[in-house]
Amino acid sequence: MSFVVRGKYANIWGMERIFIKNLTEKIGEEVKIAGWVDVRRDHGKLIFIDLRDMSGRVQMVALPNHKEAHSAASKLRSEWVVEITGKVNKRPEKMVNKNEELGGVEVEIMEVKILNEADTPVFEINDDGREVNEETRLTNRYLDLRRGRMQKNLRMRHEVIRFFRNYLSDKNFAEIETPLLTKSTPEGARDFVVPSRLYNGKFYALPQSPQQYKQLLMSAGMERYFQIAKCLRDEDTRGDRQPEFTQLDLEMSFAEQKDIMGIIEEMLITAIKNLYPQKKIQQIPFPVFTHKEAMEKYNSDKPDLREDKNSPDLLAFCWVVNFPFFEKTEKGGWTFTHNPFSSPKPEHLEMLMKKENTGEILTTQYDIALNGFEAGGGSIRNHKSEALEKVFEIMGFEKEKIWQDFGHMLKAFSSGTPPHGGIALGLDRLMMILQNEPNIREVIAFPKTGDARDPMMDSPSDISKEQLLELGIQIKKPNK
Ligand code: ASP
Questions:
Q1: pLDDT at 182
Q2: CA dihedral sign of residues 243, 450, 143, 40
Q3: Residue 319: its pLDDT value, please?
Q4: Which atom number of ligand 1 is nearest to the Cα of residue 210?
Q5: Is the domain of 161 the same as that of 98?
Q6: CB neighbours of 122 closer than 8 A, spacing ≥ 6?
Q7: What number is the average pLDDT over the span 1-8?
Q8: Domain that holds residue 316
Q9: Residues 111 and 148 in one domain
Q10: Which of 206, 226, 228, 247 maximizes ligand 1 atoms within 8 Å of its Cβ, making it the mutation to test the pocket?
Q11: How many independent structural domains does the chain possess?
Q12: Pocket of ligand 1, candidates 249, 257, 379: which has the most ligand atoms within 8 Å of its Cβ, to mutate?
């Protein structure tokens, strides 16, 4: 990895700032480093300052013989941003700090440039922050994210996403963005809606997932799509959920269940081997259970198969297949269990088309579970309009309503749409498990609180009278 910042311009701009991580290669040399004051220990004559940047942390020392630097160092406080010119010294064997990556070196401070002072932080930054109240952490998230644990979580998240991107790109998948301002999709959750200013009284919906667009990309002949996609669902807060979350979303043409499952399984195994070599995947290939087997054996459709549940580096994946397509609603009708766009198992297509034995129809849905969590799910889709129409008929939709809501899908499916299927992995949950964190907020840069607020931005918030007027919206009674 290259940490060169200025490259060929270094000579024009003076000494190049280097990253702390690279100090071990510069023993005996004069260097410029920059970052945040982690801790200052003032022993009068000797002032020790630990300096932190995104690559690491190093101990520096100000000696009384560099007068100006010594006096400047005595003023520094935690979280001040400074640029230091200094000499890299190797520490004598006895003084090596084995607990620190850069414990073998020390920087002798020659010059201190204060780039910004900082108020006393509201909480400690050089511990893992688990004791700090979450509201305070989220209100001051820019400080909270400075701690080593959070820096690592976000960097590993990036590494995992980068791995997936490269992996899929190498398999000829194209990353394609789909709109955020869209129309309500029937994915089982409540939509977030956005009022239209140009069409007062009308609303966009934010996508619960890119489901319809990714299928339309298959109609469009793209064949292999993926996206690191934001999904938005206005659900009542339940446990460890976020109103917006991230999926690795994927769709593939001319694919069967085994193709999608195979790609995802291989991608996960390779990513973990490369990025988390310390982790052990309990069983490869991942075991596959039918929904019935999983329920009978484990009473769960996302069983925790770990042989040793105390082992933090054990990963037990499994697939669950053959879910019932439909389930009874409270009112006695039928609704889909997973995804209305799924196709039934090929041998059950006839039952769907004849609308017979609805409760017995099984779907091509496949879910992937990891250590007792749902890590993702997908299905092979109906790519013929008659079959999709039947799904909505079984759910009691009138023909007119079906065409009004899904006319675009039905038309696309009558215009040469290939057989296709896909899947989405929950990235937040996957990262939570890989990073051994207790909840997904620890692996999201700016999450909402458990009750869907952002206490740092103070959202949701009021909007001005002018904004409401433009949107043609009148607030009757705030729902407090
Ligand atoms: N759209 C589905 C979901 O969000 C995933 C899929 O079937 O591809 O769960």
A1: 94
A2: negative
A3: 98
A4: 1
A5: no
A6: 136, 140, 143
A7: 53
A8: 143-323+365-383+418-443
A9: no
A10: 247
A11: 2
A12: 249
Q: Partners of 250 in the beta sheet?
A: 226, 423
Q: Which of 187, 206, 209 to mutate to test the pocket of ligand 1 (most atoms within 8 A of CB)?
A: 209
Query: Is this structure's pTM higher than 0.90?
Result: yes
Residue 99: band (very low, low, confident or very high) from pLDDT cuts 50, 70, 90:
very high
Q: Residue 1: its pLDDT value, please?
A: 47
Q: What is the CATH number of the domain that holds 66?
A: 2.40.50.140
Average pLDDT, the chain: 94
Distance 377 CA to ligand 1 centre (A): 6
342 Cα–ligand 1 center, Å: 10
Is 47 among the domain residues? yes
DSSP 385-422: HHHHHHHHHHTT--HHHHHHHHHHHHHHHTS-PPPEEE
DSSP letter at 337 equals: S
Closest C-alpha to ligand 1, atom 4: 209
- What are the pLDDT digits (tens) for 412-445? 999 999 999 999 999 999 999 999 999 999 999 9
**Looking at ligand 1, which atom is closest to the CA of residue 379?**
7
pLDDT digits (tens, 9 = 90+) for 48-84: 999 999 999 999 999 999 999 999 999 999 999 999 9
* Range from 70-79, 231-240, 285-294, 416-425 carrying the lowest mean pLDDT: 231-240
**Which candidate, 369, 366, 390, 368, places its Cα nearest to that of 380?**
366
Ligand 1, CB within 6 Å, residue ranges: 209, 211, 339, 377-379, 422-424
Which pairing describes strands 224-232 and 193-195: parallel, antiparallel, or unpaired?
unpaired
The whole-number average pLDDT for the span 119-146 is 96
Q: What is the CATH number of the domain that holds 371?
A: 3.30.930.10
